[in-house]
Amino acid sequence: MRTFDLSPLYRSTVGFDRLFSLIDQIGGVENVPAYPPYNIERTGENAYRITMAVAGFGEQELSIEARENVLTVKGEKKVEEADDKKVLYRGIAARSFERRFQLADHVEVRGATLENGLLHVDLVREIPEAAKPRQIAIANGARAERTLEAKAA
């Protein structure tokens, strides 16, 4: 039997919590780690935070762009090696990366902070009033007829 790996979709979307909870229950999808490692947290009813471990990267080496429901985080590390020192073992990642996150409708980036090697990107989902559900009053048939007659007179 063939199985489909939905982990790339699961790891790169924000605001589709219910959909992926259902997929987890049905298919038992597991996350596959990627570079750089990151967490997606729900910090409020309509607020999210993406935290990425970007140790060794400075603010000038990171860029964040939000365009058409896609959040892109790029890191370009410029390795400067002095002539007098040679690295015997390189365990600290210095490679460039690009991570894309598909955002749900009406999810906006509120800001980003770099603190202790962690990049925090705060997101919020703001649904416009026109798209929010609203209650419709049900009128009594006789009352509706009287209202129409009063408008006609």
Class based on secondary structure composition and strand pairing:
alpha+beta
Radius of gyration: 24 Å
Q: Indicate the CATH architecture.
A: Sandwich
Task: Give unreliable regions as ranges.
Answer: none
Distance between the termini: 72 Å
Strand order of the largest sheet: 1-6-5-4
Defining key terms:
4-stranded antiparallel sheet; 3 helices; 4-stranded mixed sheet; 153 residues; Immunoglobulin-like
Explain what the structure shows:
There is one protein chain. The protein has 153 residues and is α+β, with helices and mostly antiparallel strands. It has a single domain (7-128), classed as Immunoglobulin-like (Sandwich), CATH 2.60.40. The protein has helices at residues 7-11, 17-27, 141-152, and strands at residues 13-14, 38-44, 47-53, 62-67, 70-75, 97-103, 107-115, 118-125. The strands form 2 sheets. Strands 1-6-5-4 form a 4-stranded mixed β-sheet. Strands 2-3-8-7 form a 4-stranded antiparallel β-sheet, with no helix packed on it. Strand 4 (62-67) and strand 5 form a beta hairpin. This is Molecular chaperone IbpA. Belongs to the small heat shock protein (HSP20) family. Pfam families: HSP20.
Q: What's this model, at a glance?
A:
The protein contains three helices and eight strands. It is α+β, with helices and mostly antiparallel strands and 153 residues long. A hairpin with a 2-residue loop joins strand 7 (107-115) and strand 8.
